[in-house]
């Protein structure tokens, strides 16, 4: 948040607004990433499109765009001869209800695979697990209706919310994956969460090393999705 | 050597000037001593406010458990009796009322005994926080009770523990500075921390230590030592002084501003002293010349007048000290509710001594030039009255330089910053130079202008009558007025930024993540007026085909950056606080750029346009969650105030973004009593909507800000009094010349009303010239101060400016005419006879 203070000085009265409009909705810091423009321009020879749809963990808040896991995933795929486009559609601060709302928008890009990595912000706000579950299920159903292979990234919530809540929260993902037959990454932040060396100062957003670990975690499930997708040419 | 009778007679002859001189001296002393005393009390009390806002002298924060070296350092301080420490853990957790099957997200604050070291945690029952928060008990916010449908005495499940609600917290000292929360507060005793069983791997906890330092002078020392051993970068050590808060910045600005007012008042009082002394001595010109012709040495004469000045100075000093004493005694009554009730205002003798010394220096400095003039006066003055012998030599320049030097030292001493002080003094010199140049220019224009109306013509001529010192008066008056105007303008700007940003009708609740299809239900639950803003998340890819440099943008230390995610919105009207800067309509109008094929129009806020150097007609390409959206800039908007209201950088027509994924953001002013009910209903029916309650924050900030502002205004009135003195003495200075003129007019057959008209016009001309000039300079100066020093937006405030100019005019004309009335009533023959006798 340090780059911020000068800004507060400049527009002191806009302080709360800045929080609200940027900080809260967009996450806790301004350091975000965007899909590199040049990647989109050279999209001609791609074998298919993968959209990584998620929150700040996907957007790569606090790290450079090329260091966020979707970019690393694309590199790893390319290295293994899979020329797939990976679009980073992470929105910092987004909750699962936001994800529902933009499912159709995602489909408009005709992706073969969508990685759905949402829910963490819901958990941090204490939103009831059944609400999150319903939102995620609806997202998956909408995406599946568009001939898209869905990879659902499992999530766990910080332990301080209490055992009941964290247990119910973690149970959402396997339940939805089982019900709707989609590929499940058991836990997107496995080995990363709670590990100081893999996270930024704020303790919840992964640093560059953390994103490298996430890319490794995601990779086998994406491979599985590529093989499973009817339209793909491996 | 001193000829007391002579001094007494001279004083008797120029009673009014002598009186103004005394007042000038008294005012400078009053300002110096009472402001000195007051600002030290204020410093103490505001610092105490700042302490309260942090509840401690030093705070240590981290998102990881506090490291071992830091823990050891803290416990070493405790052992040595240097400081007391209290550990605080803050985190969110679910709190459940099993009986009602309700659970909410709450913000827990687990505090050790000792918390808070400063300020009070106020409970609804009025009882002592420390005695209520026992192991097994919790203290909760009313909102938690409402939403859990629980009462004091009920048990809540928090983590693995069941705890009893012991009381309701109404305010906590260290909460308001920058607090917003997704859930209500619950205080837990540190003794229960382990039984909650919530701190484990994967928990997100804010670990803090609060320290109270026994010796206030050691705060920085101890904090520095702690910072030495703190684990970078996650552990932050802050003192209540260094903590980067907006309130703290306000305090700094505030004390700085008080000091400035003090210095300005001193300068103005000095000018008043000089003007009145000039006038006083000028009235004695004739006497001096005669004395010189009959053989009195310059040394003798100067000694007499020096004695007179010292006498007047002593009277003024006593008066000033007495007034200051009385004022300080009445501070508690004057500032009831502004100063803490128990603050002790003692007369600090060192401040009195310091003030007296400074006052004497001001008197000496500003007496130099008038005295020098009298010294140079030649006996021939008796015969050649029109001769003004003001010497403009090295000494004159030297004295001016000395005055500048004196104030430069004073400014630097007060600001404790050489560079800032120097640039400040430089600015002041530029101000004076500009005033001199422009007022001389204006006077030259007036001189060559010859209106038809006789009274007006005579008034114009009157300004340039010999010995009238119009130029000197204009420069002095304009410069002083511009300083007062500037103080006024700066004060208003500070108020507008810091106080009026919190009007009572400001939204106190924000609602996030409302889905489009939920809006109707939401409105039904809220059941009152609210502002709704659709939000579409997007990033800016390029401006005029030049890609946004992510790295470079994120390096920006100041202002916003273009690499972040933006909240786009769509609507076809301006918000209440918006204005068009370029283009008449938002998206399409005559002369506005038209979007090409495949492009959509976008209206851009001027602030982001400045950051990104975006101009009308530029092509912006947004990435709306994967889909590129080329947009042509069709208009630029600005915001008319900087209140806490939602604003949007980029506004699109509805058709272009209607189908993009969006959420709705709502802001509303909800009665505090209703808010919990609304939140409950939302949790039940639309649980994905998050509510942020900022009511508390807004209230507390608003209260502090308006307190400070009241104090500033009180001390601004000092400088206004000094300005009044200058106006009065300037007008009195020309009394002799006016009397003569009135007599000649009457001798030539003019009626009293004509003479009155001439004087009124003359005063009007003088007043208008000075007021307009001062207004111009004041705007320039306060713009500079606001932007460069305070770093706040500048509002030109046309209304208050007009009021200031009008008030000046009224004052100058009023004082001028009052001073002239006695002249009008005089019979010409008496004056002529007097002249004859002399």
Q: Could you describe the 3D structure shown?
A:
The complex is a heterodimer of chains A (234) and B (838). Chain A is an alpha/beta fold and 234 residues long. Chain A contains ten helices and five strands, in the order αααβααβαβααβαβα. A five-stranded parallel β-sheet of chain A has the order 2-1-3-4-5, with helices on both faces. In chain A, β4, α9 and β5 form a beta-alpha-beta unit. The longest helix of chain A has 21 residues. Chain B folds into four domains: 232 residues, no CATH class; 183 residues, no CATH class; 216 residues, no CATH class; 141 residues, no CATH class. In chain B, β12 and β13 form a beta hairpin. The longest helix of chain B has 40 residues. The radius of gyration of chain B is 34 Å and the shape is globular. The model of chain B has no long low-confidence stretch (mean pLDDT 80).
């Amino acid at each position: 948040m340090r780059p911020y203070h000068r800004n507060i000085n400049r527009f002191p009265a806009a302080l709360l607004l800045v929080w609200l409009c940027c900080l809260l909705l967009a996450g806790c810091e301004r350091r975000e990433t965007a899909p590199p423009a040049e990647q989109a321009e050279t999209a001609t020879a791609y074998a298919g499109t993968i959209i990584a749809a998620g929150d700040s963990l996907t957007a790569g808040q606090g790290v450079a765009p090329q260091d966020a896991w979707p970019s690393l995933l694309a590199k790893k795929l390319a290295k293994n001869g899979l020329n797939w486009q990976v679009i980073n559609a992470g929105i910092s601060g987004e909750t699962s209800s936001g994800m529902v709302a933009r499912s159709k928008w995602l489909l408009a890009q005709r992706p073969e695979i969508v990685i759905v990595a949402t829910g963490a912000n819901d958990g941090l706000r204490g939103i009831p697990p059944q609400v999150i579950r319903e939102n995620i299920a609806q997202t998956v159903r909408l995406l599946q209706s568009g001939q898209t292979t869905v990879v659902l990234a499992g999530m766990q919530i910080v332990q301080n919310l209490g055992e009941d809540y964290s247990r119910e929260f973690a149970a959402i993902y396997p339940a939805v994956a089982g019900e709707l037959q989609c590929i499940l990454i058991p836990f997107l932040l496995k080995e990363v969460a709670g590990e100081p060396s893999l996270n930024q100062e704020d303790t919840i957003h992964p640093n560059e090393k953390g994103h490298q670990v996430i890319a490794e975690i995601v990779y086998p499930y994406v491979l599985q999705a590529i093989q499973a997708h009817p339209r793909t040419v491996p | 050597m001193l000829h007391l009778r002579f001094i007494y007679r001279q004083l008797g002859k120029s009673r009014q000037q002598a009186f103004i001189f005394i007042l000038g001296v008294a005012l400078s002393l009053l300002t110096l001593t009472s402001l000195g005393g007051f600002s030290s009390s204020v410093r103490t009390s505001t610092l105490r406010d700042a302490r309260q806002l942090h509840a401690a002298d030093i705070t240590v924060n981290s998102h990881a458990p506090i490291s071992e070296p830091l823990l050891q350092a803290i416990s070493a301080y405790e052992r040595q009796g240097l400081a007391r420490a209290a550990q605080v853990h803050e985190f969110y957790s679910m709190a459940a009322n099993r009986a009602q099957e309700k659970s909410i997200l709450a913000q827990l604050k687990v505090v050790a005994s000792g918390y808070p070291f400063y300020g009070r945690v106020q409970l609804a029952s009025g009882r002592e926080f420390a005695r209520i928060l026992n192991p097994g008990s919790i203290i909760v916010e009313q909102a938690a009770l409402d939403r859990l449908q629980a009462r004091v005495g009920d048990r809540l499940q928090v983590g693995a523990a069941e705890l009893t609600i012991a009381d309701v917290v109404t305010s906590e000292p260290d909460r308001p500075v920058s607090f917003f929360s997704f859930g209500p507060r619950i205080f837990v005793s540190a003794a229960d921390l382990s039984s909650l069983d919530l701190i484990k791997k994967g928990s997100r906890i804010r670990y803090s230590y609060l320290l109270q330092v026994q010796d206030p002078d050691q705060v920085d020392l101890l904090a520095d030592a702690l910072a030495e051993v703190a684990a970078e970068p996650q552990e932050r050590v802050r003192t209540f002084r260094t903590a980067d808060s907006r309130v703290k910045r306000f305090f700094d600005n505030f004390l700085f501003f008080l000091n400035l007012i003090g210095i300005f008042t001193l300068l103005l009082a000095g000018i008043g002293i000089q003007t009145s002394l000039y006038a006083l001595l000028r009235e004695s010109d004739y006497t001096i010349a005669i004395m010189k012709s009959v053989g009195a040495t310059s040394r003798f004469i100067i000694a007499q007048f020096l004695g007179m000045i010292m006498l007047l100075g002593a009277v003024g000093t006593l008066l000033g000290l007495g007034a200051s004493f009385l004022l300080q005694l009445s501070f508690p009554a004057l500032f009831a509710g502004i100063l803490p009730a128990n603050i002790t205002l003692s007369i600090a003798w060192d401040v009195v001594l310091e003030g007296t010394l400074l006052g004497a220096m001001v008197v000496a400095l500003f007496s130099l030039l008038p005295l020098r003039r009298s010294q140079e006066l030649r006996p021939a003055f008796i015969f050649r009255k029109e001769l003004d012998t003001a010497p403009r030599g090295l000494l004159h320049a030297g004295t001016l330089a000395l005055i500048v030097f004196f104030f430069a030292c004073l400014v630097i001493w007060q600001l404790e910053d050489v560079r800032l002080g120097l640039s400040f003094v430089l600015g002041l010199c530029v101000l004076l130079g500009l005033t001199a140049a422009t007022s001389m220019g204006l006077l030259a224009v007036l001189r060559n202008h010859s209106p038809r109306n006789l009274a007006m013509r005579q008034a114009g001529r009157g300004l340039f009558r010999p010995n009238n010192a119009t130029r000197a008066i204009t420069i002095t008056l304009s410069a002083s007025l511009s300083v007062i105007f500037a103080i006024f303008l700066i004060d208003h700007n500070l108020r507008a930024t810091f106080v009026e940003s919190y009007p009572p009708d400001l939204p106190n609740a924000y609602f996030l993540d409302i889905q489009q299809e939920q809006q109707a239900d939401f409105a039904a639950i809220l059941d009152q007026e609210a502002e709704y803003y659709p939000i579409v998340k997007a990033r800016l890819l390029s401006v005029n085909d030049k890609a946004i440099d992510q790295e470079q943008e994120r390096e920006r230390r100041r202002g916003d950056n273009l690499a972040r995610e933006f909240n786009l919105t769509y609507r076809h009207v301006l918000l209440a606080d918006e204005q068009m800067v370029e283009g008449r309509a938002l998206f399409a109008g005559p002369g506005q750029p038209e979007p090409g094929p495949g492009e959509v129009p976008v209206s851009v806020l001027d602030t982001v346009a400045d950051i990104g150097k975006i101009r009308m007609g530029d092509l912006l390409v947004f990435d709306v969650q994967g889909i590129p959206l080329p947009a042509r800039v069709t208009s630029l908007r600005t915001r008319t105030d900087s209140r806490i209201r939602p604003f949007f950088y980029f506004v699109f027509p509805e058709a272009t973004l209607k189908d993009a994924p969006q959420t709705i953001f709502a802001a509303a002013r909800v009665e505090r009593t209703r808010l919990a009910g609304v939140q409950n209903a939302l949790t039940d029916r639309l649980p994905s909507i998050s509510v942020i309650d900022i009511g508390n924050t807004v209230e507390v900030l608003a209260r502090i800000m308006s307190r400070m502002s009241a104090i500033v205004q009180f001390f601004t009135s000092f400088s206004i009094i000094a300005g009044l003195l200058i106006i009065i003495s300037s007008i009195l200075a020309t009394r002799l010349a006016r009397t003569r003129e009135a007599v000649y007019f009457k001798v030539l057959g003019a009626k009293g009303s004509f003479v009155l008209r001439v004087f009124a016009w003359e005063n009007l001309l003088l007043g208008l010239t000075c007021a307009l000039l001062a207004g111009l300079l004041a705007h320039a100066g306060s713009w500079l101060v606001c932007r460069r020093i305070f770093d706040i937006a500048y509002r030109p405030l046309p209304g208050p400016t007009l009021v200031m100019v009008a008030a000046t005019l009224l004052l100058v004309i009023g004082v001028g005419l009052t001073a002239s009335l006695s002249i009008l009533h005089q019979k010409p023959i008496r004056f002529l006879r007097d002249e004859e006798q002399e």
